[in-house]
Amino acid sequence: MTIDRSKPHKIDAADFPRLSEFARGYLHQDLIPEYGSVLNAALAYLDDLSDRERQQAAAEAFRFRAVTHEWHNAEVNSAIATLGGSWSFVAKGELQEVLRTLERGH
Q1: What CA–CA distance (Å, rounded) separates 22 from 106?
Q2: How far apart are CA 4 and CA 50, in angstroms?
C-alpha cells in the first residue's frame, strides 16, 4: 500500500480489508447491546479470526493508526464510515485503544 500524502485525510477501504470486515460486522448501532463496549466488540472480532487473519488485522490496525495519527476525531470517524462502520468514537483515544488491541491480537 502506498499512502498518498496529497490526500492525507482520506483512506481507501480496499487497503484495509480486515478493518473493513471489523467495521461492517462489529461497529454498528447494536454494538452496545451485543458486546457491551467497543473494546469487547474488538475482542469478539479477534475470537472469530484465525491466527493468520489476526496477523493481517494487526498489521492493518498499525497502518491505520499511523495514517490517522494526526487526524481530528471527526475525520477518524469519517474514515470508520468509509470502512463500513456506523459507530462514532466519542474520543480518538477510544479508537486508539481498539487499534492497539487489534495489534496485540488479544
Answers
A1: 14
A2: 31
Q: Is residue 64 situated within a structural domain?
A: yes
Separation between Cα atoms, residue 95 and residue 65, nearest integer Å? 9
Q: How confident is the model over 64-100, as pLDDT tens digits?
A: 999 998 899 999 999 999 999 999 999 889 999 999 9
Tens of pLDDT, residue by residue over 27-77, are 999 999 999 999 999 999 999 999 999 999 999 999 999 999 889 999 999
Q: How many domains does the chain have?
A: 1
Q: Taking each helix axis from N to C terminus, what angle separates 92-104 and 51-67, rounded to the nearest 10 degrees?
A: 150
The answer to whether residue 25 is domain-embedded is yes
Contact 87, 42 (CB under 8 A): no
Specify if 7 maps to a domain.
no
Expressed as residue numbers, the domain containing 36 is 16-104
- Residues near 46 by Cβ (< 8 Å), separated by ≥ 6? 54, 57, 101, 102, 105, 106
